Amino acid sequence: MNLSKLKSLSGDASFRKFYRYKNVIIVFSKKNTRKNLLIYDAINKILIKNKIKAPKLISQNYKSKYIQIEDFGNITAYKELKKNNKKKITYYKKIIKLLNLLQKIKTKKIKTFLGSSYIVPKYSKKILLSEAKLFLDWYVPKKIKKNQNLLKKKLLLIFKKLINKIKFNNKTFVHRDFHVSNLMIKNNKFCIIDSQDAVFGNIAYDLASLIDDVRLKTSKNLKTSIFEEYIKTNKKLNVVNFKNDFDILSVLRNLKIIGIFTRLSMRDKKNNYLKLIPHAWRLIEQRIENNSRFVELKNTLDKYFSKKVRN
């Protein structure tokens, strides 16, 4: 198949390209082919096995670096939420139901389309730290010229302390990029895409991704309502420990996102994500303001990153 003759669809932050052809989506991945095609389909198989809508594999041409998958159309939850201000909480209640279903998944091993076995990895503290370090590796060098190494060491120590304060074990299925742009709507049902990074991790992670979404600005009241809706549907949860982990993971995730968006610009020449960085900063500020567990982080960020830099 000659992909150059097909019109590509708007893509994501990965190395994948998407094309629509005869009611299927062609996913082409020049780099990270194993993750973007093989593992992507493996996780989709796990979701489908657990009665969650995800793109079914139609065919694969792994040697030519592409697969054909089910087409869910163009309507995302993001688009609907941008349109329907009054219905926002209704949408989020449905999304919380989907998240609860996702978190019930126990499948840890699945056969790939090449016949090999894929085991869903654990979201270890080491991985969490390596992701937070993207802020240090990409954003700090771009913005800070004086005392750069000192700042990196200081922040690394703070990140380690925060990660060590996390309470819950890594035993919950985590999509890892669970936000409204990755939820398609077809026949009034939510379908999950972009699942290749799924892991078994912290129960609070996907809710933090959903509520503190860098792509969609939501009010403080709506954030609280979504959080409370989740708690209502998970009555056995230790709420104090959950809120602790939620706050820490949200902050670390948005620091990681700032690092990733900076890398996308500097390394991959994808500059359209830079406009989202100021909102990522706002989300971090909201979580660390008047929060005793973030005093050291807040003081350090305030010292080195002025409002002008953050904007």
Describe the protein's architecture and organization.
- With 311 residues, the protein is α+β, with helices and mostly antiparallel strands.
- It has one domain: Aminoglycoside phosphotransferase (APH), C-terminal lobe (Aminoglycoside 3'-phosphotransferase, Chain: A, domain 2, Alpha-Beta Complex).
- 48% of the residues lie in helices and 14% in strands.
- The chain is built from eleven helices and eleven strands.
- The chain has helices at residues 33-49, 77-83, 88-102, 125-143, 148-164, 205-211, 220-232, 239-266, 277-288, 295-304, 307-310, and strands at residues 8-9, 16-21, 24-29, 57-61, 66-70, 109-111, 117-119, 172-174, 183-186, 189-192, 199-201.
- A five-stranded antiparallel beta sheet has the order 1-2-3-5-4.
- A hairpin with a 6-residue loop joins strand 1 and strand 2 (16-21).
- It is globular.
- It starts with 7 loop residues before the first strand and ends with a helix.
